[in-house]
NAD-dependent succinate-semialdehyde dehydrogenase
Amino acid sequence: MNHMLNEATLWRNGALIDGRWLTETPHGSYGVVNPATGEVLCSLPRCRESETELAVEAAARALVDWRKTTAGNRSEIVRRWYDLIVEHKQDLALLITLEEGKPLTEALGEIDYAASFVQWFAEEAKRVYGEVIPAPRHGQRILALRQPVGVCAAITPWNFPAAMITRKAAPALAAGCTMVVKPATQTPLTALALGELALRAGVPAGAFNVLTGDDARRIGSVLTSHDLVRKITFTGSTEVGRVLLRQAAATVKNCSMELGGNAPLIVFDDADLDVAVEGILNAKYRNSGQSCIAANRIFVQSGIHDALAKRLAARTRALKVGNGLEDGVQIGPVIDEAAVIKLERHLADAVAGGAQVLVGGSRHDLGGSFFQPTVVTGVNRAMTLAREETFGPIMPLVRFETEVEAVTAANDTMFGLAAYIFSRDAARIWRVSEGLETGIVGVNTGLTSNEVAPFGGVKQSGLGREGSRHGIDEYVELKYVCWAGLDPA
C-alpha cells in the first residue's frame, strides 16, 4: 500500500524504539485493517512488556541530554517537525483515511489541526518561565523553577490518530520531556509516520518512541507501573481512564486524562435556525460522529422543534456516505463491527421506548461498518441514546420547554467535556454557559477545537488541559529554591 504515498518511506512497518525501527518481536504480528474495505493494510510487530521496557529505558537515557538542551534549540527542532508535517500533509492525511476511515477532506483538516499544536508549542518552549518571589527574611531569595516532568507515556485513541498525539508530544518535547507513545491498535501508521518525521526534524533517538501492538493492557501496565515513567497522558474512554488512574496511583504518577463525553447541544427558540443547522451538523457528523466532543444529546425548545427536525432530516438524507478516498464523501465508516452493533443497540432501545426515526436507522447498503446517518425524535432522558456516549452518526432530538429544564437535563450525566448553545439572547448565553457543568462550551458554533484554547473536561470527563499556554503546564513541575546567605558580609 505504500505505493499510494508520495513518499513511500513514511509507510513504516515497525515500532520506533531508541531511534531504530523494530520490525519483529518474539510475540508475532497483527494486521491493520482499512474499515472502509476490510482490507488488511499491513502487519506490524506485536510489542509487549519487554519492548515497552526498552522504550521506557531509551526515553530515560534520552532525557538526560534533552532536558539540558536550551529552550531555543528545542523550539527549533519542534518547529522543524511542524514544517515536515505540513510538507507531508497529503501523505499523512491519506494514512489517516486508510486506517481510520474518515473522508480525505476531513483527514486533511486533521493534519492542519495536529500541526497547529506542534507550531504553537514550538513557540511556547521559549516561554516556560519561573518566578522570583519576595522572601520573608533578609538575605534570602525565593525561586520557583519550572522543570520538565521527565519520561512521559501517552496512550492515544484511533479517532484522531495525528492530533491526539501532537497535542501531547509537542508540549512534552517543548518542555524538555521525552515520550513513549502507544497509539491505538487500529491506527498506528499515522503515529509511525509522525515518528519518522520527528527523527528527520532532529528529535534525538529515544526522545520519541512509538510502540505497536494489540496488547494495550500489557503495554499499559508497564507504562503505569514503571518507576522511570513520571507522567501518564491518555485520551479515551472513562472506563479505561479509571483503570489507568488506579494503576498509576501505586507510583503516584502525574496524570492528565481526556475521557468520555456525552455532549449536550441546546437550541433555544430564539436561535438563528440557519446557524443552528450548520452547527449541529458539524458537531454531530464530524468523523461520522466518532468524536469525544460530538453532540450526543440535542435539546430543542418546543417552539422550533418540528421545523428544526425537518431541516436536519433533509440535510442528513443528502449526506454522501462512502469510502473516504472517493470524491464528495461526507460520512465514512465507523471504526469496526463492534461500533455498528453498539449503534444498533442504542437505536433499538430508543425505538422500543417510543422514539421515531426520521432518516436512516440501519446499516448502510455499502455493508461492512457503514451505518446510515440517522435522525431520531421523541428521545427522552431515560433512553440509552441519552445516557451513554453513542460514538456514531445517530442524532437524537429531545424536546424541552424551559431554560432551567434544558440545563438540568444537560447536566444530568457523569460526563462534563463539551456542550453547545444556540441562542441570540446575550443574557441567556451567559447564564447557560456558566450553568453548564462542562470544560468547553460552544456558543452558536459546532466547531470549538483549536491550539490556542484550553481543551479538557470536568467531572468524569478528565483531568488537565491540552492546548493553549496552559497545555505545557501539564509537562512541567514547580521546584521551590530557597537561597539564603545573600546579606553582605
